[in-house]
Amino acid sequence: MNESDLVCFIDDDEAVRDSVGLLLREHEIDVSSFASAEAFLGQMEGGFQPACIVSDVKMPGLSGLDLQRLLTEQQARIPLILITGHGDIAMAVAAVKAGAHDFIEKPFDDQRLLESIQAALDEARRKKAYDDTLQDFAARIGELSARQRQVMDLAVQGFSNKEIAQELGISPRTVETYRAWVMEKTGARNLADLVRLTMRLEALDGALN
User: Domain spans of the chain?
Assistant: First the structure.
């Protein structure tokens, strides 16, 4: 089973797990069901990471909101859809504001659930593509020479070729050559693209640290 397309459904009601599991499989969506948030988290300890999580809010032990909090603490950026009763709407809204992908009221409509899950899977694919792009960019930066990295750092700060040359004690023509190498090695299309990728990588490093 490909975890990159896997939906994990968490509910302490076996009948609901069976019903949702059948629904998703009928629509060719891979699903793995868990009777508790604890069981799901235990699976994640082995490196398991699905594309999307759908969880009931009220369950014995850890609730869906507890699960969200723990995933946030673990920096697990997995779209989370919460299934909630009418009395939990305020909590569910707060959860969405805190980063949950969606919440669906009980009794939920099958189509509503399917659409939300599909949107979450699409989001997960976009995040993976985004992360892969940044990882590739980081690897390419690691291949730059010390001087190329100096030129790149100054360029993304807005220094002109002349200013970089003065800062590093080299000629503007040499700076142009280094900048060309930087663009080629990083795969950036232009300076604006280089700046955006650098800012995104710095933001990601800041979030992880």
Answer: 3-128, 143-208
